[in-house]
Amino acid sequence: MKTETFSQLDKVIHEKGRMAIMSCISSHPDLSFRDLKDLLQMTDGNLSMHIRTLQQAGYLAVSKTFLENRPHTSYRLTQQGKQAFKNYIELLAKIVSWNQA
Questions:
Q1: What is the gyration radius of the CA atoms in the chain, in angstroms?
Q2: Domains in the chain: boundaries
Q3: Tens digit of pLDDT for each residue in 38-53?
Q4: What residues contact residue 90 under an 8 Å CB cut-off, 6+ apart?
């Protein structure tokens, strides 16, 4: 495997906090901020920063509504986010399978 393969990893997703967020949302669409915070054991500020980065990359869509008169923010992967995450996982699988050969 060439070194270029590793440089192809999406740097936006590759950070462990953002990879965890993408993983959670890809398997549980429309997770709320609180759900993500609880699942990932992140602080409000840390989670917000990672979500903002994923949003700016076009990978996450944010939905702000009210549930029982309380603000409710939820997230889902955009089409671009789904494709980017799929590509990321496929490249990781390729790297892992190469290392096992």
A1: 15
A2: 7-93
A3: 999 999 999 999 999 9
A4: none
Residue 15 is given by DSSP the state S
Pairing relationship of beta strands 31-32 and 60-67 according to DSSP bridges: unpaired
Amino acid at 52: R
Q: If you count them, how many residues does the chain have?
A: 101
Looking at domain 7-93, its CATH architecture is Orthogonal Bundle (1.10)
Alpha-carbon gap, residue 31 to 11, rounded angstroms: 23
Residue in the block written with tokens 């029982």: 68
Pairs from 92-96 (Cβ < 8 Å, separation ≥ 24): 92/9, 94/1, 94/5, 95/1, 95/5, 95/6
